[in-house]
Design goal:
Four copies of one chain form a homotetramer. The first copy, chain A, has helices at residues 13-21, 34-46, 59-69, 84-87, 92-97, 113-121, 150-162, 174-181, 185-188, 217-229, 238-248, 252-273, 294-302, 338-348, and strands at residues 52-56, 75-80, 100-104, 132-139, 167-171, 196-200, 210-214, 277-279, 287-293, 308-309, 325-331. The first copy, chain A, is an alpha/beta fold. In chain A, the strands form two sheets. In chain A, strands 1-7-6-5-4-2-3 form a seven-stranded mixed beta sheet, with helices on both faces. In chain A, strand 4 (132-139), helix 7 (150-162) and strand 5 (167-171) form a beta-alpha-beta unit. Chain A is globular and about 60 Å long. In chain A, 64% of the residues are buried. Chains in contact: A-B, A-C, A-D, B-C, B-D, C-D. The interface between A and B is large, with 54 and 54 residues.
Chain lengths: 350, 350, 350, 350
């Protein structure tokens, strides 16, 4: 019963196979190889547009370089107050960009467009003391397992566009959000106003396949230097390319994401059916946040379940009835089995 | 006849097998897994000391974080004028450290200890305008395929120690240097005065296995934050750990390095036997620098050889007789075959 | 009726005289001159302790270098959500320190010690993803014209000390706060737990006399490099030293601050007596925040008063009854006359 | 006999008077005051073009912000190997720009245009590993007291223009160079290809009057943010404006520079006439570099002369016959008297 994180699983068999398939022979490194170019072309087809792809080691790197590439002296990047950028990257985005992050509130992990407009308004164009707006970043799926609808993305993008600010999407769980919305990659990104995408594959079945995808050709040239300077330009980059090939071929990435989401839905059903647990938020993707008695959480762990207690985010500090309860996060992945989920459900019945 | 770089090869079969072997099941990420700890213990045994290991995506990252961790405001890091830090990392070490690199001359890619002492002396302790010495960095094997002897490392380390400066070793080709000297990892590093080591496995048969090894416990705590902030803390870190396991088990890394070095020696013999080529430098490890008529280089390429022209480094600008000649670099690896080398030798005969 | 800012006035006559008095002859620059040392000794006597003094161009520089000197990779500095560091320095503290600022709420411009403890607790020592606490900064007098009592400073300092965090004080209006409390410089700083002080003289009668005062000898050596590297080490530093001499001699700084505070108190009395205005906050120093009908503000300006509308700070967003009102800031200084204040009072009567 | 530096003198009487003249009344701060605008207009007239002026605390700040405003990720700035940027600013330019400085050789403190071209050629456009050329910076007058002719500036500017690189001029001793060439400010700057100028007034009679002058409107907007973020935007900026007014009115700055240069010429004549000294370089401005027996230097100091020994710059390491000799720098200023110079001359006769 492994629900601690989607990065606790290893890699899917197809991903491993792709590495083996493409491991032979000699080929140019540093993203100049044939396979790297194939993957870029494949992503271009999937996203229905020209784009540039920068493989990176981690989501922190993708996010940090994205923000860095659009920041100038005194820039401020607006993101949700619970965003990974703000809370889980040890100051990486600020370090790489030399820019401040401005947290914006919003329900269900989603930046409130009106609150964004208010936050931006605090930086009048003729008053440099405060700094200046630089970019907007949203997370899809969000940090609490919800997914912005296309309309919600569009409303945030509209505010960004009003102020001529580039929009970045942290897509660490992009595939899970995509299949949740049953939309296309293009619809969920550049057609909705996104110009930079952190495209995560690691949590969804790869070993290490993260990419910063840039839809704006004007930024790509600059990003290449940020990318290399940051120590993120892999020499044997084909090992990432191979993973992405295995990931994207035959829509395998979507298949894996659908499975992970289905496992979360199944988990949510068990939770709703249990007298000992209640959903903190209705899950849209592959994470479920649940309120449990601490004693119950202890029992579940004794029975072999792994999962993390979650510091109640600012916007949900009223979730808990009293100190005997706590908020917990459970995450499913391509590797989660229905049996595991049902075992957890059984354990929940007490 | 692939001699362009040791990163043109894929990964050795044992490395791939190790990834497959350790891919099953669920385990904690972010360097907290069991396998990660095993590898740290294994390296500790190999280096005969306590140490901390930080897996990173690239050698640029290892070098940059090493320098960053020992730099303060106004620090200057001394390295050879042809060092990878200075010439091939797009300003990464300076960006991460906020520190300047001061190039130091020296024959055969090795920093001259006297020149190092002179360079340091330009920063008197009571004159902060110039900045202050921060660290010394050497490359083993060097950028032109030579290897510092233990005595040479010791002489540089002595100057560093005189000025209380930490010594970093860029070991992108650590294994090749090690087997060239037929010494121990401990002798070539901390026993010689090295406190930070960029330990490269990628060029010697892995996919992506680079580590910053820290012999100084006082630095490890700080490095952990630099590492995460830089976007270098892999989530599924066991995929690097697995590679290192396959790399280190049964001294496989040394076997691969011995093979690569032998292939370079065989290549050098062909070059010395050829009337159309001459060695620029006697090779110690797995790179050979050769002077060829440009026309000859063209012919070799037509016959299928890949290799790079090399901008004559500053300390070797007198290598070329005239404009009809150029300097070329040929690199061998675990994947180079004797047949390939001999084919090149035959082609060299004209 | 100039109430726009205390930096709209020129310099006091004694300050100008001091510049003239010390302008003759030749003397060593870069803080090595005799006068610079005299001023350091004088400050040492005034603060009753050993200290180091770094003259800087602006309060932004003093604050930024203070935070930079105590920050490491991933550090987070805690300050009040309305602090000048956060809102008016164009990202300077983050740029110099590579560190994030974490805004902490609190009434009347003062950080709430409990909120500070909660904020720090979000950074558990064993979880580097979030970053780590680096420093605490308070502003004395605060951004809305209040003054922390010694007890209030002590409570914040106690939380900082619990977590082993250095405490910085932004003393842009240090003198005004000091005379408001009728305490000693030592009591209000190091005896209360402050290790770094931005000591402002410019707003209180100087031209350009700002200093970063460091009570912790362990930090001074590092600060010297930050100071020079930041382009803040004046060559003819004696022109700052001379200003400080004129400022400090005969307690002239306290005399000027007392005058400025008295003018604000007089202004506040007029406001309280007026049917057209009300105090937003009871002023402790030389700034008064007042709620006016916008129409009334327009009239006052027509009669020659200068003052700024103030974006209602987060913690006071409920100050305004409706859109016809706005919040305004009025500042007095050494150069404000009672006549001016009374003229404003008369204008307020309508 | 004060020849240690031109920053050992205080301020000229006219500068002090200007501060007093403009000290009364209330005026807007942060470069928004009337006087600030007058000075900008006056500089615009003197330079015969539109321009933006940013007052800064030090030459280090002017240089660092200039380089920062034109640098991007991986940028490299080319400057003379003895430039103040490289050797005397404690890493400030690198810190502010995140960019590397690449030292270029050249005789007499002047960058050799051919060497510049060679240095730039080491950064081919299609190879981002090395980084990329970002800017060129020259110093006028140079660090060893020579002055680039307009033709020499033009040749360097031509190389910069070929590569589309902005040209910065460090004019810490701009006035001394200008009167040496008997040319116009426009000829020596933007007409010759300079787009950013560090315009120094401090060494030539002011207290603290340094400005970064920007001839390129496209850069000015960005510089405003760099300037504020760096803690270089003075609140009571009129105290710098006033100094510049006193400096520029009636060509007083040129009068002072002519005097300083004449004093250096007089000093040089004494040196040439002396059997105990020889000129290291023929002086063009207000600094003279002289080779003396160390014993002689000791005698001169005993007689009351102040001056610094100078580390023989790289390009002049052959100046000294043996260890009994050393290189010394003597600087004259607006405050140097002919009597002082002649007294030194007399002392030199032995």
């Amino acid at each position: 019963m492994f629900f601690a994180s989607d990065n606790w699983a290893g890699a899917d068999a197809r991903i491993n196979q792709a590495i083996l398939d493409h491991g032979g022979g000699f080929t140019s490194g540093y993203n100049n190889g044939e396979l790297d170019k194939q993957v870029e072309a494949q992503l271009s087809q999937i996203f229905e547009c020209d784009l540039s792809v920068f493989f990176v080691a981690t989501g922190t790197a993708a996010n940090s370089l994205a923000i860095a590439s659009v920041s100038k002296a005194g820039s401020v990047t607006f993101c949700h107050e619970e965003a990974h950028l703000v809370s889980d990257e040890c100051g990486g985005p600020e370090f790489f960009s030399g820019s401040r992050l401005c947290p914006v509130p919003g329900r269900l992990g989603k930046m409130d467009p009106a609150a964004l407009r208010t936050a931006i308004a605090r930086f009048p164009a003729d008053f440099l003391h405060h700094g200046r707006p630089g970019a907007v970043s949203i997370t899809q799926a969000t940090e609490i397992g919800t997914v912005h609808s296309l309309e919600e993305i569009g409303r945030i993008a509209a505010v960004a566009r009003e102020h001529d600010l580039p929009l970045h999407m942290d897509g660490a769980r992009f595939a899970n959000a995509l299949v949740s919305l049953e939309t296309t990659p293009a619809q969920m990104t550049w057609k909705a106003g996104v110009s930079l995408l952190s495209f995560g594959g690691t949590k969804n079945g790869c070993w290490c396949a993260e990419a910063l995808i840039c839809f704006d050709p004007a930024l790509s040239g600059e990003l290449a230097f940020h990318h290399k300077r940051a120590g993120q330009l892999f020499s044997k980059s084909r090992f990432v390319a191979a993973q992405f090939k295995g990931y994207l071929d035959d829509d395998h990435w979507l298949t894996m994401a659908r499975h992970a989401n289905a496992m979360t839905a199944r988990l949510a059903a068990h939770i709703e059916a249990s007298p000992h647990a209640r959903l903190a938020v209705k899950p849209d993707a592959n994470e479920v946040f649940v309120v449990l008695k601490k004693a119950m959480a202890g029992e579940l762990r004794q029975k072999g379940a792994t999962f993390y207690e979650w510091a109640a985010p600012l916007s949900h500090s009223d979730l808990l009835k009293d100190d005997s309860e706590a908020l917990y996060r459970l995450v499913t992945s391509f590797a989660t089995s229905a049996g595991e989920v049902d075992a957890f459900g059984a354990a929940l019945k007490g």
